[in-house]
UniProtKB/TrEMBL annotation:
Transmembrane segments: 40-60, 67-88, 100-118, 123-141, 153-174
The keyword Protein biosynthesis is annotated on this UniProt entry: no
Domain GGDEF: 215-343
Record's keyword annotation contains Metal-binding: no
Protein known as: GGDEF domain-containing protein
InterPro entries hit by this protein: Diguanylate_Cyclase (IPR050469), GGDEF_dom (IPR000160), Nucleotide_cyclase (IPR029787), Rev_trsase/Diguanyl_cyclase (IPR043128)
Keywords attached to this entry: Membrane, Transmembrane, Transmembrane helix
Organism name: Sporosarcina ureilytica
Gene3D superfamilies: 3.30.70.270
UniProt GO MF annotations: diguanylate cyclase activity
Lineage of the species this protein comes from: Bacteria, Bacillati, Bacillota, Bacilli, Bacillales
Length: 344
């Protein structure tokens, strides 16, 4: 659960780091290129520009954004209500309509932000509070406003209602898709080690086999030596910790383009781009790193490796059969060793 929250937090932060500069530039362009009748409209957009820039800078330097987001939103809400009230008061007894384009343009962004940082029920409540705050000045001064102005004001209110309704149902759809994506990822992640499980490794393997490229691909199949004895002697909780630490040791030696997953039990697999020589070198580095690491509760652990490159015409079955035989050779020859084509 904590990882999901952290992931969502990082996603939201990255989104703000991209979106806020765009909104800042949009506000600046609107100020420079827009043809505003009232100077107050320029102040509105200048306020938005400064707020977006301040929000971006604060997001960049501070990862704890909860209170920052609330403060910025509260400022936007307050400024929106005050500015609408000012426009209404300024047009009492004046004939003609008013263009609420500035408000209609920025309102969706404010409301989207609202729904992005709060739970749905809270976001709906806060949005309704903003809606009521927008309606009050129009109702209060209704008798002093002309028909054209009231029609423009009604369009602003209706647009807010539409935005809120659209966001409510849009976020339901987004939430449903997000839940499906989380479930899809969980089906491919080993819960103990937090790396790809056998289902995920199968997908990676099939993807490599289906690629129509002439690059070399190789596979490393390995397992922990005498792992059953570890479980029998020290207990499954120690065995689980060994698996977690073993995974971390391996990950520390890998690059981003090497695919590492748990095949099952104490068996693991790495798929990488490169010849068997490259894979053999990596496997030997892993063997040494594992041998030199001191594992919690058991101290020393070793691993045996089988290595093979993809051969033209290979299927998943033929490739796995070959690399499994090489792992078996490593076991038969004393364990804690790497077996490739040359050692068979």
């Amino acid at each position: 659960m904590l990882k999901k929250k952290q992931s969502f937090h990082d996603l939201r932060r990255n989104l703000l780091l991209v979106v806020l500069p765009i909104l800042f530039l949009s506000a600046l362009f609107s100020i420079v290129l827009g043809n505003r009748v009232f100077l107050f409209d320029v102040y509105i957009e200048l306020f938005f520009a400064c707020t977006f820039m301040l929000g971006w800078f604060a997001t960049l330097v501070n990862r704890r954004m909860k209170y920052l987001e609330i403060i910025i939103l509260f400022g936007l809400y307050t400024y929106h209500v005050v500015s609408v009230t000012n426009v209404v008061r300024r047009h009492r007894g004046i004939e003609g309509a008013i263009d609420f384009d500035s408000y209609i343009v920025w309102l969706p962004l404010i409301l989207i932000w609202t729904f992005a940082i709060w739970r749905k029920k809270v976001a709906i409540g806060v949005s309704l509070f903003l809606l009521i705050g927008t309606i009050i000045p129009g109702v209060y001064y209704m008798n002093e406003l002309n028909q054209s102005f009231l029609e423009s004001f009604a369009q602003l209110i209706l647009s807010m209602i539409v935005y809120i309704l659209v966001l409510i149902y849009s976020f339901k759809i987004v939430k449903a898709h997000a839940e499906v994506e989380i479930m899809r990822r969980q089906l491919r992640i080993d819960p103990l080690t937090q790396i790809g499980n056998r289902f995920q490794v199968d997908e990676w393997l099939q993807s490599f086999l289906n690629e129509k490229k002439e690059d070399d691909y190789s596979i490393i199949f390995f397992d922990i030596d005498h792992f059953k004895k570890i479980n029998d002697q020290f207990g499954h909780s120690v065995g689980d910790e060994v698996l977690r630490e073993f995974t971390q040791v391996v990950q520390n030696e890998l690059r981003n383009n090497e695919y590492f997953g748990r095949w099952g039990g104490e068996e693991f697999m790495i798929i990488l781009r490169g010849s068997e020589c490259v894979a053999y070198t990596l496997a030997e580095n892993l063997r040494q790193a594992i041998e030199s690491f001191r594992f919690t509760g058991v101290n020393r652990v070793t691993a045996s490796f089988g290595v093979s490159e993809f051969i033209q015409g290979d299927t998943a079955h033929s490739l796995l059969l070959r690399v499994d035989k090489r792992l078996y050779v490593s076991k038969e020859n004393g364990r804690n060793r790497v077996t490739g084509k040359m050692e068979e």
